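User: Run a structure prediction on this.
Assistant: Running it now.
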Amino acid sequence: MTTARWLAQYAWLPEHAEPTPDVLIEVEAGRIAAVTPLTPSSRPPAGVEVYPDAVPLPGLTVPGLANAHSHAFHRALRGRTHGGRGDFWTWRDQMYAVADRLDPDTYLALARAVYAEMALAGVTCVGEFHYLHHRPGGGAYDDPNEMGAALVEAAAHAGIRLTLLDTAYLTSTVDGQALAGPQRRFGDGDAARWAQRAAAFQPTDPHVRVGAAVHSVRAVPADQLRTVAEWAGERQAPLHVHLSEQPAENDKCRAVHGRSPTALLAEHDVLGSNTTAVHATHPTSADLALLADSRTGVCLCPTTERDLADGIGPARLMAEAGIRLSLGSDSHAVIDLFEEARAVELDERLRTRRRGHFAPLDLLTAATAAGHTALGWADAGRIAVGARADLVTVRLDSARTAGVPPVGVFFAAGAADVEQVMVDGRVVVAEGRHLSVDVPAELAAAVEAVNPT
């Protein structure tokens, strides 16, 4: 069996508060076979080359980043929805217009470029919250899962792993109004038919896993929530749900059901250790207790939450309650997990007017191990023996990182500082360039195709 050796100038090892210098990482069959921090006693004498067969990794090497919440087609909106007034609901109309123009071919091209952009940013696994299932008007494709298959193929081309979170989206409002306009592409009629279609999609590609999602309490009637939760539970698959993203959602849920969205999900057994609530921007203290007691995780998407004027969630209170925090780029206004990570701390400073809520290790964990766990890849996100060989090397000599100690990378670096990315032992980004996708050119072409002038 071939062993590849990599010598990291610095590597961030599990549970270490700071990166460790001079770490030899050995990789076999896509897994980390050995991790050896070099001490003075283990180094060869002066003048003798250190491990001549090891490839040097100048900079800081961290585990692969996990983007736990993505809507790939939203990338086509970047720079087109940010200048005017409005809120989430006005932005949503623009998003629906893009959704209505996509077909399997254009979605494959767009998602391939978007996932490759993620790879350039150090993302080795993405959770795609997938509800664009059917033709415009709601009719099924000949293969009812053709759009999901396009996403699987796109991730393979980009060289990253995918958790396809097949999303139940059945109604347009909390009180059960029917889907209309572009929304008709999202619906399967009811949860039983959603489950039947989702169960028929069984890709065997090693880079993909299939999970489930409840779009929100707006989109799945209360009496059908348990159907989706049981589908995921029977398969021990990840289950994600948009939760309390806007106060209007909370108010309407209380008006219709007499309880908060979190309480409604708890009542129908949606919460649990395999469940991740996305956003959770406006929870009550009782909601936080329900999330913590059920061991439900929370995926924060700070750049999207800022862009859509949704608000700032209580991240510190969540962490103190023991809630696992992960990160997502959601609408892809920005694809930069370093930015998302530091925003967790910086937004908390804005909310509380105090500094120092999350240590660098906390931010690293949210961007790596916690995200992989939320997506069903618990064997990734750590530089440790037996873990998947996902290694992301960040430059320490760029205009942004020069002079920055390695421990400060999550407060200084950006996606542009990612130099090399390895996924399951295979290098997909080298010298800051994707090895198989011309990312800028493909993004330009794919976005133009769904934004006709």
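The mean pLDDT is 95.
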